[in-house]
Amino acid sequence: MVSDSSNETSNSDILDLHDIALLLNYERASTEPRFRHAKLREVTNSDFQTVRLLAPEWAAPNVPKTGMVFDKPRRGSQTETRPDLPSNMLPDSPSPSLTSLNPKQLETLYWQARNHDGCYRTVTLFQHFIDLFPNPNTIPIRVRTIDNHGPKVYTVSAGARLILEMKLKEPSSLTLACVLPDNQTYISGGARVIDHAVLAFSEDGQNIESILDLSSLQFGDVGRGCKGRGLFLLEPVHEYVDRYLPRFATQNNFEDGKHSSRINDAPDSAWLRQVAKRVKERWDNRKNEHWCGHCGAPGKTLRKCPCGSAYYCDVDHQKAAWPFHKHFHTT
């Protein structure tokens, strides 16, 4: 039985894709420059109350919309270095509408904002991370997915992964995040056709079997894996195509998408390389520093699962990860 966390792996040379995804997403989102130290001022699905919004996309009819306004500290006024998390996203004196948000709702908003244009960032980040290893193309990666028939586990070389780029037509939702005082507005789903990129893996080297979509929560809760509780999608390809893509957009060209082994660096690759280095350091130190099996956060006070192979920030994160972990839980 494969342990749920490579913290306790018996083969230190194998990268566990699920664990690496946790670490990559945590380190990326918690230091995302566009939203660094930003506090959530307003959330709406209709008219904004605290800003005058000029984005014409917001007037799109018959599309579920999520609008957010963030306040960033002025440049030079912020010396805090702690990571940005859903739990510290609210200001000191939030409005009543914000205090009514539960932890899962805050978590969704956090990821919706930070995953704007996230697909190419995450694919590039994974590329930078793999490049940190000697002979990166030969590094073995363990892939674990769950479907109605139970768990599937196989190992592939990092060089065998594919980047799959596709078009999503008529997105099913629209997310807008306005960041002040930068006066930057980030819109996901505002165009009739949007580009999307994921990582694909194959056991036999020919037929795609698994998809890793690290930015799926840009589409809101419909992008949650792990039975609607996870923070990314690591799914069998048929589940991804049949269940998730129709939730993201009316049409897609997944079957005719572009396949490649590498992509050009993202505009913010200098930051992404630093993120990749932190993930590599955490992976190399996994026997001494554990991470949450739901969100990837480090901590010395994490809850240890009775099976001894997984750790969690709290009971809520443990419950959220259970639909995946239960297939690898041993006592």
Automatic annotation (TrEMBL):
Residue ranges, annotated region (Disordered): 65-101
GO molecular function terms listed in the Swiss-Prot or TrEMBL record: zinc ion binding
Transmembrane segment boundaries: none
Alphabetic keyword roster: Metal-binding, Zinc, Zinc-finger
All copies of domain MYND-type, residue ranges: 292-329
Pfam families the record matches: zf-MYND (PF01753)
Biased segments, Low complexity type: 90-101
Superkingdom as given in the UniProt entry: Eukaryota
Name of the featured protein: MYND-type domain-containing protein
